[in-house]
Write a structure and sequence with these properties.
The protein has 324 residues and is mainly α. It has one domain. 80% of the residues lie in helices and 0% in strands. Helix 6 (129-147) packs antiparallel against helix 12. The relative contact order is 0.22.
């Protein structure tokens, strides 16, 4: 098991990653006139350019540590965790509104934690039942609150169903990414978390080049010059904040925390996304939203306490109530 100091440092990195990742919710909301493909292509083209500029001074050192197998893994991870995930996510926001998006982000911790419970030395699932249940309760409350609000009628039922399908695709792609990325970081101790994030950016930028033509050339929608300025400004902010800085903090947390606890760190993205949404809408959270936030925070805190103990202690504590 990790030491308490290491766990606290990892939680801090996970929280900061969530703070920067929360801005990805605002992008699709601010740029409703642009397609999910355009949002993904612009964000990751800029991410790639920034990553190339930052990694050039260290390339002589890194090129001997990254071979064909690593580049192949980086391309797969970039496709799953960046391109595919963000296209699905932006589509869910456009088609099913923020409710589906919040549900996707809120379910990711449960999915990653359950997968991570199969890792060697992980805290058993039975020791995480209560924090997982609290997390699921928080997600359910958010979904009930958002789905219960009256809509404007602009989105049809088939479109909402398609949006939910996109949300499911985002859930699957990012769960696989989180698990595989954590394993690759463990295999490459000579490559720093920040360098791995930049290498991911280079691979993602290369993939985004393939999206550029269909995203920007094969579209019939015309936009004003001011709309394009906002588009590229928001895309640059998301690329720097979420992709460069947020990914660097996430990769650092992945090295410091076990995968079962890393799953819970994704909840911070949900919390910060909700906070930014409240600020954008200029309102306070509703009663159900407040209860959901409390449940999500309690889920993370309880999961952290489980990881402060040895796995066998946590397991015996989980089994004890069944014996009474």
């Amino acid at each position: 098991m990790k030491t308490d100091r290491t766990i606290l440092a990892g939680i801090g990195c996970g929280m900061l990653a969530g703070a920067f990742w929360g801005v990805v919710f605002l992008g699709p909301r601010m740029l409703q006139a642009f397609s999910p493909l355009q949002l993904a292509a612009s964000r990751y083209l800029l991410y790639g350019l920034i990553s190339v500029a930052l990694i050039l001074p260290r390339w002589r050192v890194l090129k001997s540590r990254v071979g064909r197998a690593e580049w192949s893994a980086l391309l797969r991870l970039s496709l799953l965790g960046n391109i595919v995930y963000y296209v699905f996510l932006a589509s869910a926001v456009h088609l099913a509104d923020v409710a589906a998006t919040s549900l996707v982000i809120g379910l990711l911790p449960m999915a990653v934690t359950l997968v991570g419970s199969r890792e060697r030395g992980a805290v058993p699932v039975r020791a995480l039942i209560l924090p997982l249940a609290l997390g699921a309760t928080g997600v359910l409350l958010i979904g009930v609150d958002l789905m219960g609000r009256p809509g404007d009628g602009a989105i049809s039922v088939p479109e909402r169903l398609l949006g939910l399908a996109c949300a499911g695709g985002a859930l699957a792609s990012w769960t696989i990414y989180a698990v595989l990325n954590s394993r690759w970081l463990a295999r490459l101790p000579a490559v720093s978390s920040h360098d791995w994030s930049l290498l991911t950016g280079v691979a993602t930028g290369a993939l985004a080049l393939l999206l550029a033509a269909p995203a920007f050339l094969w579209t019939a929608t015309a936009h004003a010059r001011g709309d394009w300025a906002l588009f590229w400004g928001v895309s640059a902010g998301v690329a720097i904040g979420a992709s460069v800085v947020g990914n660097a903090f996430w990769n650092r947390a992945s090295r410091l925390l076990p995968l079962t606890l890393m799953g819970q760190m994704i909840l911070f993205e949900t919390l910060f996304a909700l906070l930014y949404g409240f600020l954008w809408d200029g309102r306070w959270p509703t009663g159900l939203e407040t209860l959901a936030i409390i449940a999500l925070v309690a889920s993370v805190v309880l999961c952290v306490r489980r990881h402060h103990r040895r796995p066998e202690d946590a397991a015996s504590e989980a089994v004890a109530p069944e014996a009474t």
